Fold each of these.
Amino acid sequence: MRPIEAVFFWVTTGLYVLAFAGTVLGMVFRRRLWRRMGFAAVLGGLVANTGTVAARWVLSGHMPVGDRYELNVSGAWLAMLVVTGVVAAVPRLRPLLAGALPPVILALGIGVTSPTAIGPLSAAYDSGWLAVHVVFAFLSFGCFVLAFSAAAIYLAEGLGVRVRVRAGLPEGEALEEISYRVIVAGFIFEAVMIASGAVWANDLWGSYWSWDPVEVWSLISFLVYALYLHLRTFAGWRGRRSASVAVLGLVFVFLSFWGVQWLVPTVHDFNQF
Amino acid sequence: MLRRVVHVLASTWLTVVVVLAFILLSVAGAMLPQVGAASVESVEAWQAAHSTVTWAVEPLGLFRAFSSVPFMVLMTALAVNMVACTARRVLHARKARGTVAIALGGSLVLHVGLLVVLAGGVTTAGLTVDGRIVTTEGQAIDLSQDDQYLGLNRGVWAGDSLPAYAVGLEKSRPPAGAAVGSAPESELAVAPLGGGETLARQLAVNHPVRLEGAILTHADWGYSPLLTVVSPQGEVLVDAYVALASSHGAGTGSGVYQDVLDAPGLPGTILVRLYTDFHWDAGRAVSASPDSANPAVELAILDEDGTPGATGIAMLGSEVGVAGYNFVFGDLRRWTAIRVRSDAGRPVVYAGFVIGFLGLLVRYVPTSLAAVRADRRRQNGVGE
């Protein structure tokens, strides 16, 4: 990582951590000012995150998705575009940053603990489908972390943690309804991610589907959200049951994006080309 | 009775049970080594190391999870469930009006799309011909002959037909400006066997060559030194290009490639190690770069436990004597492995993706927009 990138990266991470702290403390101590500062820090963090991505792009000469560090930094940026866009459009939802930021900060942590040296873009990434696949993957991640946050706060309310009213979030099942709406968007984005990945795989390996562990886990996370939608729409699951599935869904997303590559060998290790 | 059966087949709970079972099977399939994706030896080694797990899961076919009987049963159940649900939606959609009708219509299209994807998957499984060829620069391969392939797999309904083309590898070089050691681009000469013009095609990672009914993708690459081995009695034992293991097979990524050579009359198994840019470094042979600037071949006779014995090094165009045998390193070429795959299911699956995606949009976008508009009306006090 070059110095300019390091500056942008650590400013990004610092501002996201500050935003998380400001949002949580503002909710706990009912300080609207702290929550506002938290939102300002998110905006600053997103600007710095944009700088991190742009600096890497300029320095490497390619779209920054060529290794684990680049994927996580770009992924965090795309996810935060979704999260920030939603909470900026609907100010009442700003407290959702409390649940949405930790997974994004975790992604940045995974990125910075991976090798960060700039290398040439693998030939496997020389595809027009790359941008579609990666962009939609992390847009869906942004939706799912937001859904996770809404569902987790809803569940915390049920356990007696009185944060929603203090934070000014929507009441009752309206909060869970928000989780549903962003899951719908994430589900559509994830479908595009899987389909574009299949077309790309066909050009790369000659086969649109290989039952590779990363492919299978992506399908599993997609199916978990498909189940969520079915249960909610047709089986009448609302409230706690539905929110529990939304929280569980992010676990599967994390496993498919980050977990499975550590656990089993996969052809999604593009350093081989 | 019939109505009851249809009710069960179209039920959401059947969907939930089947999808949950499929998720469980997929988790097992993603975590356990799969025959086909991994070598049989590595799967057997894993099974030996995890005998208790193997005892429990092997009868279920979970080492071939995605072609196992439980997988087939689940896919069939899912297809039947989707057909029944789709039929039920058709009936409901006729009575619905407004946004509900749009959502039902979208759901219907979405499920039709999923069924088309499933049908494409079945077509792929049944009709695909999938093989791998390895060709060295200057060599041509007849794709219509079974014996030209390494590991040719045919679907159960695929028949005997293979692409009626001969493919020659003219040249294989990294693209201009690419980092040293990058995967090469291969210039192919593709000749229809029935006669006709020979076509020049460029094959590279991510840039397949499409023939009529088949797709050729770059699978692997490496080096083939031309070795001539002459016995102490003057008999030529080997005179061939020896394809060394690939860049990510046994290559180190730093310009060292190796493999073993076995042939009748040789004094044992010979370890052949290629240094693409040979140099001595503190008495050790190394490759200074992955570029083929100064190639040399190291030849070592392995004893019974695989330990290198007598060793010699030959530069390109020279010879070396090892244990009385003469080894000539006459030429160096590259080889390219090409995956050749005919898959009639692919366009069906892609059509399913498009239909399903349209269905997703119609199912969810109008209802989501309507909900957002309703929220706004509530916030503005219009709908109170």
Note: Chain A has a mean pLDDT of 91.
Amino acid sequence: MKSAVLVFPGINRERDMARTLALISGREPAMVWHADTQLPAGTDLVVIPGGFSYGDYLRCGAIAARSPIMDAVRAHAAMGGLTLAVCNGFQIACEAGLLPGVLMRNARLRFICRDVYLKVERSDTPFTRGYNAGQVIRVPTAHGEGNYVADADTIARLEGEGRVIFRYVAPDGARDPAWNVNGSTNAIAGIINERGNVLGMMPHPENHVESALGVTDGRGLFEGLVEALDRAA
Amino acid sequence: MIPNSPKITPELVAEHGLKPDEYKRVLDLIGREPSLTELGIFSAMWNEHCSYKSSKVHLRTLPTKGPHVIQGPGENAGVIDIGDGLACVFKMESHNHPSYIEPYQGAATGVGGILRDVFTMGARPIACLNALSFGDPKHPKTRHLVSGVVAGIGGYGNSFGVPTVGGSVRFHARYDGNNLVNAMAVGIAQKDKIFYAAASGVGMPIVYLGSKTGRDGIHGASMASAEFGEDSEAKRPTVQVGDPFSEKLLLEACLEIMHKGCVIAIQDMGAAGLTCSAVEMGAKGDLGVTLDLDKVPCREDGMSAYEMMLSESQERMLMVLKPEKEKEAEAIFRKWGLDFAIVGETTPGKRFIVRHGGDVMADLPIKELGDQAPEYKRPWVNAAKPAALDAEEVEAPMGVADALEKLIATPDLCSKRWVWEQYDHIILGNTVQRPGGDAAVVRVENGPKGLALSTDVTPRYCEADPFEGGKQAVAECWRNLTAVGARPLAVTDNLNFGNPERPEIMGQFVGCIRGIAEACKALAFPVVSGNVSLYNETKFPGEDSGRAILPTPSIGGVGLLDDFTKSATLAFKRAGEAILLVGETTGWLGQSVYLRELCGREEGAPPPVDLIEERENGDFVRALILDGSASAAHDLSDGGLAVALAEMAMASGIGAKLSAAPDDIPAHAYWFGEDQARYLVTVPAAQVKAVLERAKAASIPVWAIGTTGGDALTLGDERPILVKILREHFEGWLPAYMAGELPQA
């Protein structure tokens, strides 16, 4: 799997992501600077990592979405190339028009760093083939603006087309507002685009991959991606 | 000719915080009246915050050496050897005054400042901690301060991208007018690639890097060197504004040019900005410095030399570069979108010369400014020591079970989850033990080594007996590192006190330092960096003297684990294990949380700290952890045995049944007394005998006092308390308080 991790000024989880990609795919990802205009040739997977691109001083992700490299990412996605957008990456992907909706301030108006439980809604995507549909995974969140909001039509479409991939749930998998960490509409934690090749999610699967540090529920996402790409190759 | 307008009047001198005798020293030194810019420079360099003039003579008594110490106090941060060619760089620093005036920005820039101290030395920051002291929860301002400070620490650290892995939060009415924000940063560097502030070589370019200079924070360091009065609110413009985004860029750019070998010397612009950084670089390198202020990148037009020299705009650095690497360094800074300007050069003459608009605005002897600031041996008195309190004379206001439920819901002992959930504590992917345990543990690079980190102090002990309190702060930190299995290596100290011109405050300071020195020596736990914050007091209208904070010498400790996977946590692991109490219990209620919270008394002598016992008991517990005998470990501190047991149960959801208190100690004193040098460990039932025999052979006092299991905690014959109920008490108070659901005064 040849992956490329985008680096915008102010991004700060690119090292976590690169380490996890190298750990699970066995190959160091390329780190791609925001001012570049091209992705490395043969890139299978583009990752937009978490952080505070441009300090989040405008709307989160708004400036990064207009960086030179994002044209290349849009072209990659339009060709069906896989794109994983996590946390600030999800915000950037929404601002770049790769995904619908927007991430608003958390309902309680505070930054929250906490392990959450996600229900994997589908296992038939390249991002979730490492899980079973309905499985509950534990991954950390660390964000102040992860409250997913879209107009009613968009939400209905996302739900109707099965594009909600991860949802905040209680540890037993039940929908429960108390476990919807940021107040997202329909407890949405992650969605895919129409074509199914761009995933945006707020939690950080890349931080839960090593047994020596505890929980490893994030591994499935990366192992699934490696498998999907190796099969395609 | 140095422009000499306006005229320097005694009022102007006083406004700059210089005492008449200090101003006379200025006149003697330069043989003429200073310019306004020069007066500002003296004021910045000779205030308490920058010069340590009241504390220096005492700080010299601290032990600062050890086999693993690479750099002790005096640089941007301390440096210790952690093996494998790596060094740990760390320091703790206060941002107390700004955080009271403007809590969000004050706390945020406190974090920014300490991070800069660490990466200035070539280290990549890997963790932050903090020690926070707030006023009485009932004080109308406290909630606002907690909310702002916590958001500010999170806002800066989260954006910068360093995990905030631990800390402490306490409340006491004595912090009503002066909250404390002590921030600690820890970084990792290659041992042979540490960067220092001392410039070397004549005619080397001095480069200004980072954000532009604005009019913010002018006289911040002087503000931090005076007590508060009614006008403290009006000092808001002296607080700087933080920009973690720029700091993150500055970090990456600095590490890149260091890696490329461009840097000779580097100093961050913290307190007193350009003045302090330029003077320190020159003075430490025995060189002069000439600055050309026309080259300084400014945020606004028309800034005077005075303003530029005293601005505390954040996210700025000063460097001496290798001339042949100038272009390469500039390209790296431009790539990161940061300002880069050559603003001066090193000179042979040991003068500090500042030019602006064609004039020389300052021409001063650089060594006297830096190394030879005034130094005081301020008079001090020891307060009378309170007598020890006999536990038999403390009437228990309620049963032990009721008391435990109440205590774990008090502001000091309750869960601080509401606070640390606002800090990203997992970024960088190395957090082994998250907040909530005895010490945080972070993996070093790809392991197997790990660092244990903790910040500690018990101010009420320091108030009652500064010497014992100083000892206890160090011992508790050492104990917390030990309780996760780490070998304690070194500390940074952040000494927060009131007005040193008052002999009784100076007495607290001297006593605490003596205690710290004694404990650091006995535990081979040297002080490698630190910070002093004085004048933490407020004069209220109609009062003759200010109200000082409790003496609060925060200790930030670093310990090493050879294998991070062997670190112990405090949670009970499984049912049916034996609970062992290590260390002597006498039932010491004097200055305990129990006495204060449930009996409404802050009395008696604090528990004495026997440093030999500390060391022996700690070494025994660490050995049990590292050889796998102990399945859980926890140190005993505030709230004593019962609170420690409750914490172990709540962390796991597993209950425990304990034997009753021994006959010779009153039950409430046994369960809630705060005797020192104690730990709880759990071991599998089959190993109890062997562990007790080991203890006996090593003359370590250890008792099997109970067994884990069930869903309730039962202390002797007291009513069982469901762990679930304990958690409700423990987790409930802070969120309810911050939501405004509890009655305010």
Note: Chain B is about 35% helix and 25% strand.
